[in-house]
Structure formats: C-alpha cells, structure tokens
Specification:
Number of domains: 1
Radius of gyration: 21 Å
Helix content: 25-40%
Largest sheet: 8 strands, mixed
Distance between the termini: 42 Å
Structural class: alpha/beta
Oligomer: single chain
Strand content: 15-25%
Order of helices and strands: HHHEEEHEEEHEHEEEHEHEEEHH
Bound molecules: ligand PMT
CATH architecture: 3-Layer(aba) Sandwich
C-alpha cells in the first residue's frame, strides 16, 4: 500500500497542463443559475425544505450539524427515462461517516442516493437472499439468525437512539438534477448557522449531462443502429456553494481520481479555485484504506491510513477521518467566534 502522493517535475508539469486544459474547457460550461432555470426540481423538494427547516430549528444551539452527501447521481438519457448514465459510489463513505458524525455528537442530514447504503443499515444489503437471508423461523416465530443478532442489535439500538433524539434526517435523490436542487435548498437553510454547520460532500456527482430541452422525449429506439451521445459539461457547483450559498460554513469536498499522478494537483487546484476549508483526496482502488487531507494552510497533505489490524477488526477509515474533521471543525468554530 503506497502512501506517496508526489510526482517528479516533468510529470508534474504535464499533469498541470492537463489540469489547465480542463480548466479552459470549463469556460464553455453553462452558468450554475441557468441550470436551475432550465431543469425541473425533484418531487420531494418542498417536503425536504419543510423537514430540514424543522429539523435544524429543533436542534440544541450547541450541537454542530453536518450535511453528509452520499452515493452517485444519475443522468437520464430520455425525459421518459428508460436509460441513464450512473456515477460510481456505493455510499460506503457517506453512510459510515454519518454514523461517526452521530457518535461525535453531530446532528446529521443525510442526503443520499435512493437505494444506496444508509447509516446502520449498510451491513445488511449484500446478502444474495436479501433481507430474508438474515432471518429464520424458530418455533413459528421470525427471528434474526444468531450470527447476525449481535451486530443487528447494536445497529438497531443506535439507529433508534439517534432517530429518537432527532439527530438524524434522511433525504434521498436519484438524478443529478434532484441532487443539485436539494443541495442548494438544504445549503440555504444551513447558511444562517454559519461555522456551526459542516458540509461533507462525499456524493459522486456527474460531470456530464444532457439538458432537458435537447433530451429525447421517449425511449431512444435501437432500429437506427449505434447510438452516439454528446453530453454537456455540468457546471461545478462548488463555486456558488462556497461563494454564495454557505460562505461561512465549514466545507469539505472530495476529489476522486483513478490516476495517482493527477490526484494531488487536482486537489490543490480545487482548494485554490473554490477557497473552501478541506479537500479530501482519494484514489478509487485504495479509498477504503487511505485518504489525504488538503488545506490551504498546510504545505503537505495530511495522510490518514488504517492498519491491517483495523481492517481485520472491521474498523473503517471513516472512524479516524471523522474524529480528525470534527477536531478541525471545532477549531474553525472557535476561530470564527474570536473574529
Ligand atoms: O461511496 P463509496 O463507494 O464509498 O465511494 C466514495 C467516493 C469515492 C465516491 C468518495 O470518497 C468521493 O471521492 N466522492 C467525490 C466523488 C466526485 O464527485 O469527485 P469529483 O472529483 O468528480 O468532484 C470533486 C468535487 O466536486 C466533489 O465534492 C463533488 O461534489 C463536486 N462537484 C462535482 C461535479 C459537479 N458538477 N459539481 C461539483 O460541485
């Protein structure tokens, strides 16, 4: 497991060039506000506004609040959608982190892709027999199989505890458009909390989409042979989020790459471009064991990785990650109070 995230000078320059050319091509991207004018809001937007406002208003004043986004967005190919392009993310990072934020005393708004992993439920979705694979019938009664009983008991107890304490609110999305409308709505509700609110943007957000007005209305027919797709670039919503929606909140974005040479320059570039607090960089194939925290105040990234022993004991990297982030968030709150 390599923890090296540096590249030699020549490599670094070619990586920078790649980053710059992608920045140049971003100039052609549509304005984020236009996106909201041209796309339809999700059916649960009004419900989410009401529930999130109520949830936030009911929290004790000293309790920090985290918006955790999780799972991948889809982009439909047809208005009457039969086919869509999906973004990779199981929701492990988000669901495990949400559990850790709750354990650290946060109220959590969990904005997640419908059907992706959810806090306290996440260990029970991989059985080939579905939920029935965890159950048995003994003396005519349905019971949890003994090998699952202890963990399920623990998870159910925690889930109920946080729900009863009004510490956890779940809001779901499916498409890119659902996600963006909900993200903006929830951000604007959190904005007045300032430093007390954290945004932890772990969802995998599509970079390309087909605008509604040029999308096929009905199912694309296969009769005319191969399908060529041309997709527009999605505006980077981190810019309005940081600048306009939640300028005083504590914002953590993620940077996912598959090429290790691109990771550090792209993470640094995101920090410089958007000016938020932390970028967490991860590589697709090692994301469960190592992540790097980039900030504008530290010259080198902070490496967080878990040991073989952690892995054997089913201890997730999010356990350590969230403890570190909660500490930094507290510092941010204290520094903001002194201003
Ligand atoms: O769920 P798992 O299987 O555990 O996987 C976790 C993860 C790998 C998905 C997660 O750790 C992660 O890296 N999430 C971010 C993935 C992503 O969208 O990365 P990106 O490099 O494409 O985007 C960087 C940031 O810009 C993200 O915070 C994203 O929210 C934001 N973005 C992206 C596209 C867009 N149009 N607007 C944005 O603001």
């Amino acid at each position: 497991m390599s923890s090296k995230l540096t590249v030699d000078r020549a490599q670094s320059e070619s990586v920078q060039e790649a980053v710059v050319s992608s920045i140049l091509s971003e100039r052609k991207v549509i304005d984020p506000d236009t996106y909201f004018d041209d796309n339809k809001p999700p059916a649960n937007l009004r419900w989410a506004n009401g529930r999130v406002s109520e949830f936030v208003a009911q929290q004790p004043k000293e309790r920090p609040i985290a918006l955790v986004t999780s799972g991948g967005t889809t982009v439909p190919l047809e208005n009457n959608t039969v086919r869509f392009v999906d973004n990779f993310s199981a929701g492990t990072r988000g669901s495990s982190s949400a559990e850790q934020f709750l354990a650290s005393g946060y109220a959590v708004i969990y904005l997640y892709r419908d059907q992706s992993l959810q806090p306290f439920n996440r260990h029970y979705s991989h059985n080939p027999d579905g939920v029935l694979g965890y159950l048995d019938i003994v003396d005519g009664k349905v019971v949890v199989k003994p090998e699952w009983a202890e963990q399920m008991h623990r998870d159910l107890e925690l889930f109920k505890r946080y729900k009863n304490a009004n510490q956890l609110l779940m809001v779901s999305f499916t498409t890119l458009s659902d996600y963006l409308f909900l993200l903006r709505e929830i951000s604007l509700i959190l904005a007045p909390l300032g430093p007390r609110a954290m945004l932890y943007l772990a969802a995998a957000v599509s970079d390309f989409f087909i605008p509604t007005h040029i999308m096929a209305e009905h199912k694309i027919q296969s009769g005319s042979g191969d399908l060529t797709l041309r997709m527009n670039q999605v505006p980077k919503f981190l810019r309005p989020l940081v600048k306009n929606w939640v300028p005083r909140c504590f914002i953590i974005s993620f940077k996912l790459e598959t090429d290790s040479e691109l990771l550090a320059p792209k993470a640094r570039h995101a920090l410089e471009k958007y000016g938020h607090q932390i970028v967490i960089a991860n590589l697709l194939h090692t994301r469960k064991w190592q992540v790097w925290l980039f900030t504008n105040s530290e010259p080198e990234p902070y490496l967080l990785q878990i040991s073989k022993e952690d892995i054997e004991n089913n201890r997730d990297i999010e356990h350590y990650l969230v403890v570190e982030l909660a500490r930094r968030h507290q510092e941010y709150i204290s520094n903001s109070n002194q201003l």
